[in-house]
Amino acid sequence: MTSTHLRTLLDPPLSPVDWVSSLETFDVIAPASILMRCETSRDFADRAATGIPSSIRLDFLTDCILRLRYAPAAAISDSESPMIAGRFDTPPALKVDEQQTNLKLQAGDLHVEITRRPFEMRICDPQERIVWRTRDLSAEVIHPNEVPVPGPTGGACAIGSRNSDRQCAFISLDLNHDEHIFGLGESTGRVDKRETFHLLWHEAGSSSSLKRIPFYMSTRGYGLFIHTANAVRCHIGDLDPTALAIVVDDTRALDLFVMVGPDMKQILPHYASISGQPIVPPRWTFGLWWSPVDAAAQIDVEASARALRERQLPGDVINWPSNLRKEDDHSATIERLRALGFRVATQYRLDAAEHGQKSARELLDQGVTALDVDLDQAATDDISARHRSILGYGRALSDLMGAADEQDRRALWTTTAWAGSQRYPIHGSCASVAGIEDLAGALRALLSLGMSGFPFCGLDFGSADPPDAAFSARWAQLCLFASHSRAPHRFTDVHPASDDADDGSEAILRKYAELRYRLMPYLYSEAIACGRTGLPLLRTLALQFQDDPTSMMIEDEFMFGRALLVAPVLDRTNRRNVYLPRGVWFDYWSKQPVHGGHWLDVDAPLDRLPMYVLGGAILPYAPLAQHTGAIRLDPLSLELYAGENTGSYTIQQADGSTLAIHYEFTARQLMLEGDPTPGEVELVIRDFGSKPQTVRVDGREGLHLLVNR
Predict the structure, then answer these.
(1) Which of 205, 298, 359, 705 is deepest in the core (most CB within 10 A)?
(2) DSSP three-state, residue 38
(3) How far apart are CA 269 and CA 122, in angstroms?
(4) CA nearest 429: which of 492, 511, 488?
């Protein structure tokens, strides 16, 4: 940041900047589209000096999504883009109110007001509260060599471009004092991006830039998708605490989608409707992935798989080392692994000429079920082409992987992404973890990616050398509450020779792996809901409880789906402070009710992960199984946590069928109804100030229970 300040103050002026200074004329060019002709200013000392006239087009796509395009002269691009998957064929009714100084536009919840001179654009909610506004041009403008970063005078250009060897287009927005910004892809830094700078581009070979996404959400009630494959620079109050500045390099045009909330849980579905609904990976992918690092040949992979089963460590996927070659026939070994309940994943290098399809198909034909692939391996040095290639390869391979039977679809695991890549999961985190001090950064990376429209992100178990029991235990606890978990290091040394080296961390791993498998009905049901909404499986408290101001500050806790709050221990103290948002909660382990809205000082021995259940939730459990293919909902266990008078939950099964449950509390009774189940149902009621009640019924004809409280 210091170097940027110095450039702004000391560098000589560069080529002129054309910024929109006034609205001159406009035309309604479609039922819900406006094309505005604007004058621009160029000379910062003399605002009367004009630049190249520009055009701004506004398309009201829905009653809460607005597309804004800017370009010098009259050219507004309408080209196709792999980043846009949504179709908006039924635009809302648009009302246009032309006044002498202002232009007012309204379509549903979108209220747009444009000041003619000096140019300013505001978007308001139905209550006329400003949620999005370009910078006020009545202030002193910035020095032109670093547009639109606020200079020493604090002003900024609203919308404009520069044509030089450093060509760019930019927009500057107001940043309110109480505003929080989330998104912009994977980052181990702060989840709240306020007072930070971000360069969004995919740099080959850099693990810190592999999933930067040009989309963010504001707690003021809007989201912004910067529709581009070019590099993007975002200054979010880092140089001026009142300004949010966006620069798109190597272009003079802007293409922005503005989504009005009112809250972030509604903005994420809007973003998914534009850039594409995330595909829900097959249920088996939510099981544990194992990767025996010492396996040098296929017999070692099979021996490791058998050892895992003997030691009762659940798992669904075993990673074959990269020496698996498509020209060799491994189908017999893969079939034996499948009989043990393991699918096979392997690292795969793209075949650029075929978009990876031909050679990948040969592996799939042998029985390989998942490919671990770097989608940037065949990219060029051109940034825009690189981002587009990531989407192109992702789509080609994802289409190929989905060609199997719906209940036995294959899957990708990749570490590279750009806007739209959420359509092609699973995305493994690039967070580097070598010790316990790195756990917090790994968690922030997951949460930031989730706030960027990516519901499913996997995490690799970290490793320490020499082995560290505390680190192994805490890392396993965190990983097993990621959407996808992969263990490629110490825990995969499962041969009998390693038995005497156990330090207790394996037992902790087994405990939480078994809990994950028992909770698979909940986990998979939440994943299906995430696929419909675009909300992440791991979500920040700020997303789930936006009306709770303290939740905005919490970056070391998360919601695992809608009902479970997880507060991982990220150091060696075996204690931590936990914040519970307002409402009724239950300690997962003691089942004691706790009222939220305050902090708790929690004791957390090495085998204890602090977890809390939101009052009103229903948690479904399956009997313990060693892989998801063996999971049966007979008996099905339901834990109902009091806290709401009424509630419901729908269990999603791998075959696409559902099991809907509804309950209603009165002062004296609980009434519960549900669809037919495969067999016996055990209902456990967790209530205030009383012992848990357990009811067992045969649910084959449906659930109809009336229980006295």
Answers:
(1) 298
(2) strand
(3) 23
(4) 488
For 318-347, the pLDDT digits (tens) are 988 765 666 667 888 899 999 999 999 988
For residue 211, give Cα distances in angstroms to 72, 246, 392: 31, 18, 15
Q: Which of 94, 89, 81, 108 is nearest to 31 (CA)?
A: 94
Contact 44, 179 (CB under 8 A): no
159-162 vs 168-174, strand pairing mode = antiparallel
Tokens 């985190």 sit on residue: 429
| CA pair distance 492, 316, nearest whole angstrom | 14
Supply the Cα-derived Rg of the chain in whole angstroms: 27
Model confidence at 155: pLDDT above 60: no
Q: In a 3-state reduction of DSSP, which class is residue 98?
A: strand
DSSP assignment letter at 186: -
Cα dihedral 529→627→519→535 (10° resolution): -20
Tokens of 481: 């509450």
Residue given tokens 């009367």 in the structure block = 48
Q: What residues are paired with 412 via a beta bridge?
A: 371
State the Cα–Cα distance between residues 277 and 269, nearest whole angstrom: 8
Cα three-residue angle 218-221-226, rounded to 5 degrees: 50
681 φ/ψ angles, rounded to the nearest 5 degrees: -125, 130
Length, in residues, of the chain: 709
Instruction: Categorise residue 504: left if φ over 0, alpha if ψ from -120 to 50, beta otherwise.
Output: left
Tokens 């959420």 correspond to 422
What pLDDT sits at residue 13? 44
Place of tokens 């690799």: 460
Strands 484-487, 457-460: pairing kind: parallel
Is there a contact between 257 and 67 (Cβ–Cβ < 8 Å)?
yes
Task: Retrieve residue 211's tokens.
Answer: 């999933």
Widest pairwise Cα distance in the chain: 84
Question: What is the Cα–Cα distance from 558 to 541, expressed in whole angstroms?
Answer: 6
**What residues contact residue 54 under an 8 Å CB cut-off, 6+ apart?**
18, 20, 37, 38, 40, 70, 71, 72, 73, 160, 161
Q: What is the pLDDT of residue 10?
A: 27
Q: What is the pLDDT of residues 570-625, one digit of tens each?
A: 999 999 999 999 999 999 999 999 999 999 999 999 999 999 999 999 999 999 99
Angle between helices 331-339 and 298-310 (to 10 degrees): 0
d(CA 89, CA 230): 27
DSSP, residue by residue, 431-486: ---SSGGGHHHHHHHHHHHHTTT---EEEEPP--SS--HHHHHHHHHHHTTSSEEE
Q: What are phi and psi of 425, to 5 degrees?
A: -75, 165
